[in-house]
Every structure is written in structure tokens, then in C-alpha cells.
Amino acid sequence: MTIGEFAKETGEWLDPELESVFAKDKQDDITVKASMYSLKAGGKRLRPLMMRLTARMIGCSDTKLADVLYYAATLEMIHTYSLIHDDLPAMDNDDLRRGKPTCHKVYGEGIATLAGDLLLNTACERLFKKAIENPGYLYASYFMCRNAGLDGMVGGQSIDLDSEGKTIGLELLYELQRKKTGALIESAVVTPYYLIKGLSEEQAEKDETAVLLKKLAEHIGLAFQIRDDILDVESDPSILGKNTGKDLRDSKATFVTLLGKDGAGKKLSLEIESAKLVLSDLKQKGYDTDEYTVLIDYLETRDS
């Protein structure tokens, strides 16, 4: 199966769940409309796709797959909230996202801010609800929340904004991107395993497969971000679905600005190779890694 076919299948799997995240009697609210505008804007759906890949790789049952879907939609809500806020004038000041006008361009800055807030808050409600129904999911819910906070995405965004116009070293850039981009990708790659196995925090830290999945997620996250940095200087908005040249405009430190385009390309290849080595380790443990290999190859050459 090609990545395009799997992405299409993932969208068909995910979309009905996204449609149901707000009750029907709430859908006339302007903030709900703004939230759904961004949530349904499309995009690659790579994080839900990774959750399906992990579930399929480890042999998930149909019952558990329904719960993976629930968490995949919840993660997509968290990701979408971050994009809405990231596009605001006070942050990256963008007017194009996924080939469409950004949320604040359609609904105004105030409603867009509330839309992001609503998506995050509703995502947390969903995670609490599922953990109450199934206490074995408690750590998976906590893990996803933590990766969206100061130890994860928000922490990375904080470093990113604070670093604009400044010279930073490669070590801080790694920390920035591991948090800003990598943390939600880690949630996508690892959470299904936690759900299926019902792991506690202590068990998760010792579980060999969980450790390998975290390593895989780290390499995928860095590969994704490096390719993003390269596309920002060589792609076209009509292909990418968002504005290019923003990193230079905002004086942001990226793998391209620190390593040069050729150096960033070499680092991307190293991360791809490292991800495939982790997949080899997972295959030796009896997991079918063929679909993940297709994804890794796509990440190295993607054009959007």
C-alpha cells in the first residue's frame, strides 16, 4: 500500500469520529464552527496515520482499534488547536494553512483563540472520560496531555518564540524541535501500544517495545522537522499548502540556517537511516514493520 492510499484510508477511518467530538446541539455555536473549520480542513493526518500504523504493527484487536481511533481523533484535536494558535498574528502571523485561509482570517482573532482553547479543553475532557471508563488507559491519557504541555509542545513553542532573532546552538534547536514537533509525534507512535497493553508509567519505562517505539518517534520527529525546514526554503505555497519563507522572515533558527541546506539534507538522511534501524530491531521482535517503512521513505522525500 502506498502512503497516499494509507492516508486516504486513514481519513475515512478518522473523519466520522471527528464529526462527533461536539454534540449536535452545540454545533451552531460560533466557536464550535471555527473549531470544526480547522479540524476538518484536511491535511496529511500523519499523527492519526502513525497511530494506525502502530496498532496494525502490533496486532491490535478490533475492540482496541476503536479506542485507538478515539485517541487518534483526540490527538488531532490537540494538533489542530496548536496550529490555530500558531497562525495567530501574535505568534507566526500566517494567513494560509492546509491550502485554506487560517482560522483567524475567517472567524477573527478572538474566536480563533477560543476555538483553539475549546479543542484543547475538549481533548482533555475526552482523555479523562476514557480513563474513567477504563483505568488501564490512565497513563496513556496522562502521557498525551504531558506531551502537549511544557515538557512537550508548549515548551518547544516557548523556546521557539523566545529564540526569534537570536543565535542559538544546535543543542537548543534539538530540544526545541523534540518538544515542539516531536512530542505529539511521540504520542502518535507510542500511545497505541500503551492502550493495547494497558501499561502503567513504571511498566512503560521498562518495556522493551515501548522504549523502541520512543526511539522511533524521536527519529521520525526530527526527520519530519528537518524536511519541513528544507521545504520552507525550496517549496511553493500552492504545493505545501502554507506560506514559505517564514523562517527567514521571522529570523528563526532551523536546521537549514544552522547546518546549511546540504548539511540539513545529510542530517535528514541520518535520521531516516536511524529510524530504519529501530524498525529492524522491532522486526526482530516479531513485528510487521513493512507499512512503517513506507512512511519513513515518504518522510525523506515528501513535498508537502
SSE layout:
Blueprint: H1 3-19, H2 30-39, H3 46-57, H4 62-87, E1 96-97, E2 100-101, H5 103-107, H6 109-133, H7 138-148, H8 153-163, H9 170-180, H10 182-197, H11 201-206, H12 208-234, H13 237-240, H14 246-249, H15 255-284, H16 290-301
Antiparallel strand pairs: 1-2
Helix pairs in contact: 1-3, 1-4, 2-6, 3-4, 3-10, 4-6, 4-10, 6-7, 7-10, 8-9, 10-12, 12-15, 12-16, 15-16
List keywords for this structure.
304 residues; mainly alpha; Farnesyl Diphosphate Synthase
Would you give an account of this structure?
The structure is a single chain. Helices cover 75% and strands 1% of the residues. It is mainly alpha-helical and 304 residues long. It has a single domain (3-301), classed as Farnesyl Diphosphate Synthase (Orthogonal Bundle), CATH 1.10.600.10. The protein has a two-stranded antiparallel sheet with strand order 1-2. Helix 6 (109-133) runs antiparallel to helix 7 (138-148). The longest helix is centred in the C-terminal third of the chain and has 30 residues, at 255-284.
CA radius of gyration is: 19 Å
CATH topology: Farnesyl Diphosphate Synthase
C-alpha termini separation: 19 Å
Structural class: mainly alpha
Compute the number of helices: 16
Gross morphology = globular
Write a brief structural summary.
This protein is mainly alpha-helical.
